[in-house]
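quick one, 619 residues, struct below
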Amino acid sequence: MTGQVTLEDAARVRAARESLWAAHRAALSTATAEAFEAALRQDDQVTAALARAQSAALHRAEADARLAALEISRARHETEGAAAVARMAAVRDDLARVLPEGLDRSTSAEGLEDWMRRREAALEGYGAWQAAARDLAGAVRRQVAARDALAAGLAASGQDVAEGAPLAVLAAQARVLLERAQGRAALVEAREAAALDLRRRQEAQARAQAVMQGWRDDWQAACARLPVGVDGADVALMGGVLDLLQGVEQAWRELRGLRDRIGKMQANRAAFEDAVTALAGRLGLPGNDPAASWAALRARQRVALDGQARRHAVQNKLTEGAQTTQALHETLAGIEARLAAFCAYFDCDEVQSLHQLVEQAGRRQVLAAERDRLARDICEGMGTDSLADAVAALDGLDRPALAAEREGLIAAQQRQAQELQRLYAELAQAQGRIDAVGGDDAVARLQEERQTLLLQITEEAHAYLRQRLGIAAVDHALQGYRDSHRSAMMQRASDAFRTITRGDYSGLAAQPEGEREVLVAMAATGASKLARDLSKGTRFQLYLALRVAGYHEIAGARDTVPFIADDILETFDDDRAAETFALLSGMAGVGQVIYLTHHRHLCDIAQRICPAVRIHALG
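---
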C-alpha cells in the first residue's frame, strides 16, 4: 500500500480482515484461507505504514522542540555577549583615566602591563648601578691607602721607591723582597736543624759503643765460668746449647705433671670404687664388681628421675585442675545468679522457658523491624503519610480487578498515544498545506482547521494525562500489594544472602524503576544499594543467594536436576565460603549439589562444614 495512511484506512482494513477471518472459520476452504491471508498481509502493511508515519511525525515534533530550544539559547548567548562587550568598554574607559603621563591613552591593558614590567626592570637596573658606583669609590680609596702604606714599608726596609709608582709595581717589589727574606730564613733554620741532628747522632753512637763493650765483658766472664772447652766460644754455638737446655727443662716439667695427674687419677678411682661399693651396699646391690654396680646405680637413678618428673607433672595437673575447677565454680555461680535474675524478671522457673522467651524476644525485634520497613515501603508506594492511610486506600480493592484495570489503562494509553501522534502528523500536514497556498480564502479555512486540530490535540493530551495518572495509581497499588504479600522465594533469598554475607546485609527488597522493578540489597547499617552498585564479590554472593532460593522453590514443586557450581567461591573469603557450603548442604537435602574447584583449602572447609560430603579428584 502506498500514499498517506490514515486511521480510517487502518480501521477499514482491520474490519475487512476480521470479516474474512470469520468467513474462513465458518467455511475453512482454500478460497477463504487465501482471501484471509491477503487481508492479513494488507493489514500488516497498513500497520507498518501507520507506525512509520507516526514515528516520522514524532521525530519532526522533537526536532521542532530542539530547534526552539536552540533559538532560545542563541538569544540568551547574544544578550550575554552584548553585556560582556559593554563591560569591556567600561574597563577600557577606567584604564584610560588612570594611565600615567607620557603614555598613549589608547594603550591596552596588555600594553600597560608590559610597560609596568619594563619600568620595574629599569628601576632595578638603576639601583644596581648606584650600588656598583658606591662599591667602586670605596675600592679606589682602599687602593690609595694600601699603595701609601706599602711605599712607606719598602722605604723603611731600605728599598728605593719611585715617586708615584703604581700599586702593582710596589706589590711586585715587595713580593721579591719577601721571597728573599723567606729563603734566607729557611737556610738558617736548615743549618740549625742539621747541627742538632749531628749532635744527637754522635751522642747515640757513644752510648751504643759503651753498651757493646759492657756486653762483651759480661760475655767473656760468663764463658770463663763454664766447663773447659767453651772458653771464647762464639754467640751462635752458645745459642744452640741454650736451646737444647730449654728443651730438656720443658720435658722434665711435663714428666712431673703427668706423674702427678696419674697419682691423683688413681686416688680418685679408688675413692669412686669405694663410694660405689658403699652405695651399692646401702641399696642391697652386689658390690663385687664396681663397674656393674655403677651401671645398676645409673639405671636406678634414671628410674627415680622419671618417677620424680611424673610426680611433678601429676602435681601440676592437679593444681591446674583445682584452679580450673575453682574458676568454673565461680563462673557457674555468676551464671546461676544472672539466670536467677533473668528468671525473676521474666517470671519463669526453668532455664528452658527463659531460653524460649529470649528467642521470642529476638524474633519479636526482627519482626518489628521487618514490620516498620514494610510499612515505610507501603507508604512510599501508596504516597501516604501513615500505614493506616495506605490500608484505608486499599480497602475494598481486588488485586485481579486492579490488574485488569491496569491492563485496560495501558491499552487505552497506547491508543491515545497513537491518536496523538496521528493528530501531530495531521497538524504537520496542515502546516505544510498552509505554507503551500496562495492569498485566497484557503488560508482562512486552513487556519480554522488548525484551531480545530489544536483543540482536539489539547483534549486528547488531557485524556492521555488522565490515563497515565490512573496507570500510575494502579502501579502504586499493585506495588503496595506485592510488598505486603512478599513471596516465600524473596524471603528465602534474603535469608541466604544474609547468611552468606555473615550479617553484613540484612536482606533483599524490590523497588520500582521506571516500567520495571530492581533488586536492592539492604545493609546492616540501614543503607541500601542497587545490585549493580555492589562490589564484584558481593554481587556474586547475591546471585548465588537468588539461585539457592530458586532451587528450593523448584524443589518444592517438582523433581530437580543436579545443582552444578563451577568455582563460584573463588572471590569469597574463608568465612563466607563456610557459610555458603552450609547453604549448599541444605540444598543437598532436597536435591544433588555438585561443586567444581581447584582450590584445596575449599575442600578442607567443605569437609569441616559438611562431614558427609564426598570429594572426587578428577584427572
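The CA atoms of residues 434 and 445 lie 9 Å apart.
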